[in-house]
Amino acid sequence: MTRAVLCRAATIALSLAGPASADDITVFAASSLTNAMTEVEAGFEAATGHDLTVAYAGSSALARQIRQGAPADVFISANTDWMDALASDGLLAPGTRVDLLSNALVLIAAELEADPVEIGPDMDLSAMLGNGRLAMALVEAVPAGIYGKAALTSLGQWDAVAPKVAQAGNVRAALALVALGEAPYGIVYATDAKAESAVSVVGTFPADSHPPILYPVAALARSDTALTGAFLAYLQGGEARAIFEVEGFTMLAPTDD
């Protein structure tokens, strides 16, 4: 879908805004987007008069639900693999996929005054953990966990740390384990750490230690609402950009306004 088409769709939807013509749209979004998308939801509803429902979970869980016929109109994944899988199944609306955002991967600590860590091959994360656990999202399914395992593997840390990993169903659940003091350290996105005052960031993983962290978005082929174009245009507009950047994301898609 070209920018011109998206803008025309947004204009049409905006012109229809109002209680008498309110429609709704359902978005499945990776859990790491919770804070930003809560604000996007409010902004889109205020701008259009339409209802936006956002369901959050790990990208893998959302993709499986979409494959099983869940009634979503738009999917925002925290990595390209799950979006690729849906594309291979023919479940994406042609021409609507865009790489929207990027993020960084950080090591967080439950101790707010924890010393900074130089993240690299010389780091002894296993010794830092002691008898404690390293909180991570599912390392074989959830993007944050996949990125984290890739980073630790590339830095020669994974074999020693693997027995001490406490896996959570999504990145926000891993964040909560550290925030509650259940794990002394965890690996999450920079944006998750920024949203939680009960943890501290002790280091950022080198960008070349893991695949690029990308958040693609696409409309789903089975969607029967005319609002998908308007919503995708809003996501790429200046108001949404400001929200995402305040939350710590890097916007990749060109701004439409």
Automatic annotation (TrEMBL):
Biological process according to GO: molybdate ion transport
Amino-acid positions noted as binding molybdate in the UniProt annotation, renumbered to this chain: S32, S59, A144, V171, Y189
Keyword Transcription regulation: no
Molecular-function GO terms, alphabetical: metal ion binding; molybdate ion binding; tungstate binding
SUPFAM superfamilies, per database record: Periplasmic binding protein-like II
Family: Belongs to the bacterial solute-binding protein ModA family.
Subunit-level organization: The complex is composed of two ATP-binding proteins (ModC), two transmembrane proteins (ModB) and a solute-binding protein (ModA).
Entry-linked PANTHER family: MOLYBDATE-BINDING PERIPLASMIC PROTEIN (PTHR30632), MOLYBDATE-BINDING PROTEIN MODA (PTHR30632:SF17)
Full protein name: Molybdate ABC transporter substrate-binding protein
